Amino acid sequence: MSSVLAEYEAIHKELREQGFIRPDYPPNPSEILWNKKIMTLPRDELDKIKTFRLKRIVKWAWENIPFYRRFWKEKGFEPEMIKDWKDVVKMPILRKDELRKDLQQNPPFGTIFHPELAKRIRFVGATSGSTGLPTFQGWGALEMDYFQEGQARYLWTFAGVKPTVVYANYLNMSGFYSWGPPVVETAMWRCGATAIAGGGETFFSWKNRHMLIFKLWKVDVFATTPWLHRLIGEEAKLEGWDTPFKVLLLHGGAAAENTKKKLFSVHPNAELAINVWGTTDGHMAIEVPGSEGQLVVWEDMEIFDIVDPKTDEPVSEGERGELIATLLNHFTMPLIRYSLGDYVKNEFITDPDPKYGITHMRFAEPIPGRVEWMFRVRGKLLFPIYVEDAVNEIPDTTGMYNIIVYDNEMDKLKIRIETRKEFVDPQYEKQAKEILGSRLGINPDDVEIDWVKPGQTVWTGYKLQVFLDQRKKK
Question: Is rRNA-binding among the key words of this record (predicted)?
Fold first, then answer.
């Protein structure tokens, strides 16, 4: 056995023995928290863990990963510069373009993998490639084990996924998507639940089959995008039955307040709707029931910092910027100070949440979207989530819409909206424009609506394409 593999396996064993990855499962159903010891660690202990693990992953990458040694040397960084976890901001930011360049020059994975661990990859994930060449992630035994632990923490604790509970996963089941069967379903089994890997991307082609599954299996916890949640609820009502879902897990885009209200109206048995933010490469932040809008981060897994996307400098507390993340336990393919592209507010809550006593920090508000999803109408900065909240106030709509972005600085909000009205009269259009203008802080005259019938907005698989980018590429 090589020294690299021996060290990797020793770290994995250490994490399980120390209880960061719970080795005994499923727990007794009476346990409220999946991993109480780790989820309620004192803040000073969390800080020590983050400092130790940041130093360890940086040292590992410097000694074992040619990509990082080269990249960091070019930027003037050395591992000795890290004294504390807060020193993460001293490191250069890694963006997808750097990974793509390395991948093209050194296929299939580039030089960011250690070759010995690359031989033992258990799962390959990949981004969609919507902004260029896809980037690939390799998951070894340690990374998969820890990610399943992170999933189990919120599924058990927040969503009540326990023995006898039926969970249906309607995320992407194909295209190298890591939140599908290879990882999420195995987290279900840790919880002792029945897992149905439905696959949201097949809903439109197999709709009758999927609707039958929901009725026959009496699904308790349902995971998909907010838009597919809404569509399925509307379809069930048209067919004359109520969906059985008690908990709605909202993936693929933060659900605005009015979106949640609509979801509860079309899913009358639902008691909870929980925003689940995550990335293909293994980051996650989950809305805490009882602290709506606040998303908890498992700090033993990763470190976040937020920068000005124009300068790469850290933003002040309360300011918004680009989300940068460091996975602390990913050794097969380290992602250290890696740009996630999301645009967030630099405000975190570190007091224990009032319901569970979880000590890990929480985003003070939902993550609204990616940096490239920002757009302006007459100087007003907008995001799809804000538009969606307003669309859901317009009567007789399905909640489905596409924002058409034709320039960085636009003089009109151009939007396609589904309506159930057979005829859109001037009064209805005026009311809709006033709602959008009032909620978004723009002049109603600067709103241009393309009304379409239900089912005529643009989707990509199981995701509503809320943002149609028609800007000319440079």
Answer: no
Rounded to whole angstroms, the Cα distance separating 210 from 112 reads: 40
Residue 245 lies in a domain: no
| φ and ψ of 352, to 5 deg | -55, 140
How far apart (Å, rounded) are the C-alpha atoms in residues 98 and 82?
Answer: 22
Tokens of 222: 């349902």
Residue 338 backbone class (left: φ over 0; alpha: ψ -120 to 50; beta: rest): beta
Helix (H, G, I), strand (E, B) or coil at 65: coil
- Whole-number Å distance between alpha carbons of 9 and 17: 12
CA dist list (Å): 51 to 13, 79, 328, 445: 20, 13, 10, 53
**How is residue 172 written in tokens?**
């992407």
What is the mean pLDDT of the segment spanning 45-69? 97
CATH number for the domain spanning 449: value is: 3.30.300.30
> Are residues 337 and 91 in contact, defined by beta-carbon separation less than 8 angstroms?
yes
Rounded mean pLDDT of 47-71?
96
- Domain limits at 424? 375-469
d(CA 159, CA 155): 5
C-beta of residue 456 within 8 angstroms of C-beta of residue 463: no
Query: Hey, what's the torsion of the CAs at 192, 198, 199, 201, to 10 degrees?
Result: -160
In a domain, 424, yes or no: yes
The secondary structure element, H or E, covering residue 389 is: helix 384-391
Read off the amino acid at residue 186.
Answer: T
**Residue 452 domain-assigned (yes or no):** yes
Q: Rounded to whole angstroms, how far apart are CA atoms 223 and 206?
A: 17
Q: Give domain status of residue 440, yes or no.
A: yes
- In degrees rounded to 5, what are phi and psi of residue 360? -65, 145
Instruction: Please enumerate in sequence order all residues whose Cβ is within 8 A of that of 173, keeping only pairs 6 or more positions apart, or say none.
Output: 180, 181, 197, 198, 199, 200, 201, 202
Give the tens place of pLDDT for each residue, 356-415. Answer: 999 999 999 988 777 667 788 998 988 888 899 999 999 999 999 999 998 888 999 999
117 contacts: CB under 8 Å, gap ≥ 6: 4, 5, 8, 138, 140, 331, 332
Location of structure tokens 């100070």: 337
66: pLDDT strictly greater than 80: yes
| Number of compact structural domains in the chain | 1
Residue type, 95: R
